[in-house]
Design a protein that fits this description.
Blueprint (H helix, E strand, L loop, with lengths): L39 H5 L5 H6 L15 H9 L1
């Protein structure tokens, strides 16, 4: 049986996260997932639009590379 424990914590220096609970028994194995709330700056940033992406230079950045050959095949091999 999986037991969930949810606590709001403040990240300490060096990225240290501390959890305390009487439900956490010594020697028990746990998997920890950290969901970080966005900072005010990140929350106020405008998400990238398709137009932004097209103007960013990312689209077509491999077009002139001669060492890749067929870029579609190269991407397919990377995914494998």
């Amino acid at each position: 049986m999986i037991t969930a424990l949810r606590q709001k914590v403040t990240i300490k220096s060096g990225g240290l996260v501390s959890l305390r609970s009487s439900r956490l028994k010594p020697g028990t194995t746990a998997e920890v997932i950290v969901l970080v709330e966005p900072t005010e700056k990140a929350a106020s940033e405008k998400p990238m639009t398709v137009a932004d992406l097209l103007q960013s230079g990312l689209v077509g950045m491999w077009a002139d590379r001669k060492d890749l050959g067929d870029s579609l095949e190269f991407a397919h091999e990377l995914r494998k």
